[in-house]
Write a structure and sequence with these properties.
Elements lengths: L2 E4 L6 E6 L6 E3 L2 E3 L2 E2 L2 E6 L11 E5 L6 E6 L4 E6 L2 E5 L6 E4 L5 E8 L5 E11 L3 E6 L2 E4 L15 E4 L3 E6 L4 E4 L3 H4 L7 H10 L7 H13 L2
Parallel strand pairs: 1-5
Antiparallel strand pairs: 1-10, 2-6, 3-4, 7-8, 7-11, 8-9, 9-10, 11-12, 12-13, 13-14, 14-17, 15-16, 17-18
Length: 225
């Protein structure tokens, strides 16, 4: 797997501007072709680029070695901690990062977003079945600094903020598309099965904004195809 080297930086600070330094990194008994790119410091920013800043044990695809991994939701990168350094995994199509202890996973997938634009980034599998897969997208953006426009205002530093979570669905191994979690939209996911889906949601008290309930819903939708 390919990794990109990062500077270890304080939690509250942003990073930007890659340099051109490159090398190869040897890890354990295997060799990982890696590109090391040192990031230059940028202006301080409050908040965090992560939903979870802790590194957790996990594996990349079918690798034997366990790595310490976390997901950067601002840069959409998988960061790997190796020998007190932070490296960035170079993504590839359908790459799967599985965290140990049922802590979740990330898959690098192509999908069509809510603006109907084709995109590719890491998605979190929520419900995986033969004919129905549901994924979640985490995203963090940098809110620019704000200067007061009058003598009564105050300066606001740039801040990392979480965007609303988005969900995506794949039917019959087709394209992965945006999934509205409004109940009226969820009941229409499978044409001709609106009544069955509506009844299932009601009888099982499904909250279409909760991951565990979407996992249950995905398994049920799978039986309708």
């Amino acid at each position: 797997m390919k990794l990109t080297k990062l500077l270890v930086i304080p939690v509250l600070f942003a990073t930007a501007a890659l340099s051109a330094q490159q090398t190869t990194y040897n890890y354990n008994n295997g060799q990982i072709g890696a590109i090391y790119s040192k990031k230059a410091d940028s202006q301080p920013a409050q908040g965090s680029q992560y939903y979870n800043e802790k590194f957790l044990p996990g594996k990349v695809d079918d690798a034997n070695e366990v790595s310490m991994i976390r997901y950067n939701a601002y840069s959409d990168e998988i960061e790997v901690q190796v020998n007190n350094e932070i490296l960035v995994l170079q993504p590839k199509d359908n790459q799967t990062i599985t965290l140990s202890g049922d802590k979740g996973a990330y898959k690098y997938l192509q999908f069509t977003d809510k603006e109907n634009v084709s995109s590719q980034r890491y998605l979190i599998p929520i419900s995986e079945n033969d004919k129905v897969n549901i994924y979640k997208k985490e995203n963090i953006y940098l809110q620019p600094e704000e200067h007061p426009t009058s003598g009564y205002g105050s300066y606001k530093a740039p801040m990392y903020r979480k965007k609303d979570l988005e969900y995506y669905i794949q039917l019959n191994n087709g394209d992965i598309v945006y999934m509205s979690t409004k109940k009226k939209d969820v009941t229409a996911i499978i044409p001709g099965k609106e009544k069955e889906i509506k009844n299932f949601i009601k009888e099982n008290k499904i909250d279409t904004d909760e991951d565990e309930d979407l996992k249950t819903l995905g398994a049920y939708l799978n039986t309708l195809l």
